[in-house]
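Recall from the previous chapter that SMILES is a line notation for molecules. Here it describes zinc ion.
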Amino acid sequence: MHASPTAVPMDRIDVFWHDGMLNHDAGRGVFDTGSDPGFLDVLEKHPENADRVKNMLSILKRGPISPYISWHVGRPALIPELLSFHTQEYINELIEADRNGGKMLSCGTFLNPGSWDATLLAAGTTLSAMKHILDGHGKIAYALVRPPGHHAQPTQADGYCFLNNAGLAVQMALGYGYEKVVVIDIDVHYGNGTAEGFYKSNNVLTISLHMNHGSWGPSHPQSGSVDEVGEGDGFGYNMNIPLPNGTGDRGYVYAMTDLVVPAVQKFEPDMIVLVVGQDSSAFDPNGRQCLTMEGYREIGRIVHSLTTKQSIGRLLIVQEGGYHVTYSAYCLHAMLEGVLNLPLPLLSDPIAYYPEDESFAVKVIEAIKRHHKDKLPFLRGA
Ligand SMILES: [Zn+2]
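With both inputs in hand, we obtain:
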């Protein structure tokens, strides 16, 4: 499905960035383990490395989308700001780990010398981007940040994430008096940290489209299944959309159109937060979904249309995963083209090939839709 032809192109995206985020180095090893088995001559960089984000930065600076980008410098978060989402005990643990020269906080999640300052910059830069929208200086802001945040829970680190950048930004919007915020997370992994932070809240609808990977240990006890729907006041306001491996462009667009759009329309948010990972791409070493640039572009268009209708154009985009050093940058470019609602693609896909058969994904999505309509009270009658 395409966005309404009457929708007008947006004129710019305000991008928030700070060079200091490059100083987080998660090391080398066998993929993300940090370990050297002794029999490999070439140990690769941890997938969450600075190179991936350097390419995202440069493609927005020198790619064909560059005339639509306005640049802003981020800032470090202050410790008291972190307490809107995280516990004091957990923050103390991070400060202590930094003081002691580093620590593996969970599987694959390394806080090394330099990491804590980069982490504070990622959180603060996301807050700067949100504040820019809240103060009325722009409609669409993109926080190009690392380390990522959506697995970071109030009390623990997980999946390369220390602080929940998007969650902190949502809390800021609530603090400004916004009553309904929706988070749409298209990173290939379940946004468990963000879900956990707002699990008992009906002010924040958390929606996550992800690979059906389940729990991956004590740092990630959540399953990401359709049955995790929130608790207390938040009952029904956590919407999980676990998609089969290899879902692809058409399957994702179907899920967005059939599940996400009606839910957001029913919820009527005054702010939309798009949490984006390019690890849902066909070439990512960390994901088993098969989006191409065209899929990201189409998701961007759908989100553009939603923001125009639902949140008077207010949209915060927060960077999460995406580990193919080249293709992540290309997919980011394509998605932002969609968010700008540009009539024609600015950049062609250099590598996409994926003979998608969406029939299985469509069946799964229809089953999820029936489940949600049954289990999420706010969706009844949608
Ligand atoms: Zn991810």
